[in-house]
Amino acid sequence: MDKIIVPIDFSQYSEYALETAAILAKRNNADLLVLHMLELDQGSLISSGEDQNQQMVFYLKLAEQKFDEYLNKDFLKGVSVTPIVKHFKVFSEVAKVAEEHNADMIVMGSHGASGLSEIFVGSNTEKVVRYSEIPVLVVKQKPDKLDFDIVAFASDFSKEMIEPYIKARHLFSNLKLIHVNVPGEGFKSSSEIEKTVASFLQTADGNLDKLNDVHYASDYTVEKGILNASNLLGADLIAVPTHGRKGLAHFFSGSVSEDVANHATLPVITFKI
Questions:
Q1: Which superkingdom does the taxonomy of this entry point to (predicted)?
Q2: 251 and 271 in contact (C-beta within 8 Å)?
């Protein structure tokens, strides 16, 4: 891992993400690209008037000044940090910045869900997850040691899950795999699940060494099954594949990856299918 992007809005949750990224950067000798989106209206961006240009320069300088103050943190000492200010209004543009800089991961903070209020869904973090081609790590709390000793990877063990699984395995050697069986059309018998899992591992790993690391859960929804199984495993991180913006059905059914990232108290990392 060489480059990590951290989009910030100067909030407390951005600071959680920044500190998390700093820990990862130190462990991997990686550079941090700290990105702030200068949310100017479209008129300001396309206008050639002198007043509008001066206004844009003023806000740009103000953001740079605030950036310098924000990045003056002890946990960033010894880390290579490059501040980036962009004029984009929408956070979907973070994916473009990641591609331009050949970044390996995006780390973002999120409020998550509070009661019945879905803060993550429709938020900037959700947009980044949906558009990103690289893994997105979503954090909601101040990091402690950030030891990902147990990483729970949720999968239905279909062929399209092989690539995300290999990417996750490359980052984390200690994966525990979760299969959730739910009532309804997607229900499978124990023998059907075991046959599917064995075929998946044989194709992805070339062996069945991780067969004992597969954990089966039955629940009313895939999301609840993933969260409950992760808690039982004592997981430090949940990994989920996502289709993102490709127009296909979301992972499993509905928007499971977004729901898990929304409701989990644990950090969640997403991998594009």
A1: Bacteria
A2: no
